[in-house]
Amino acid sequence: MWKLIFWSVTVHAAFQFSPIVAERSVQFLTGNCTFNPKYFTNFTLTIVDNMMNMDMHLNRPIQRGFKANLDIQLRLANAKNFQSVFNQKNDVCAMIASMKNSLFNIWFKDMTKNSNFMYNCPVEVGHYYMHSWRMRSSLTHKFLIPGEYRGLINFFYGKYKTKSYEEALSLSIDSILSN
After folding, report:
1. 3-state secondary structure of 30
2. CA distances from 157 to 67, 136, 160, 167 (A)
3. 110, 122 in Cβ contact below 8 A?
């Protein structure tokens, strides 16, 4: 009988008190980029005070068929190398036009608050920027566990890593996700 009462009180107490869950945070560490001068006159990526900044000058329009390969990688504790946990290829123009609630679209919508990025294709020749963008905790997907991450994003035309592949821009962003 006492065991039943103890169990009942313990279970009841467990459901009455919820543990304090710290808000997730993302700390940007480094960002690097390379660009094809056929598409960009300039592209810079900087991280200052945990905020990402991009400035670019597009010297030819971005049109349908412009694609992105996003590879999110995690480095486990005591590991030397990063391992891919998520990899996806998308047609950038089609994705922006549809504006579904995918991970990419949620990030893009949030980035546009601090930028002059276009919502449609073709994206005309000109100067584009994103200043002082911080990844908020609500923008981290729940499947990502706390740890050290690297995001690799390749923008290209053609078919990925074949003879028709033509890279326009490559970004690498390192960060730490904490609870």
Report:
1. strand
2. 6, 31, 8, 7
3. no
- Measured CA to CA, the distance from residue 81 to residue 61 in angstroms comes to 37
Q: For 127-175, what is each residue's pLDDT tens digit?
A: 999 999 988 766 666 777 899 999 999 999 999 989 999 999 999 999 9
Which of 74, 37, 69 is CA-nearest to residue 152? 69
Closest CA to 92 of 83, 106, 104: 104
Identify the CA nearest to 128 among candidates 113, 115, 111, 109: 115
Q: SS3 string of 54-89? A: EEEEECCCECCCCEEEEEEEEECCCCCCCEEEEEEE
Highest averaged pLDDT of the listed ranges 94-98, 101-105, 111-115: 111-115
- Domains in the chain and their CATH numbers? 22-178 (2.70.220)
In order of 30, 34, 46, 111, 143, the CA distances from 132 in angstroms are 15, 21, 10, 9, 26
- Cβ atoms within 10 Å of 113's Cβ, excluding its own: 9
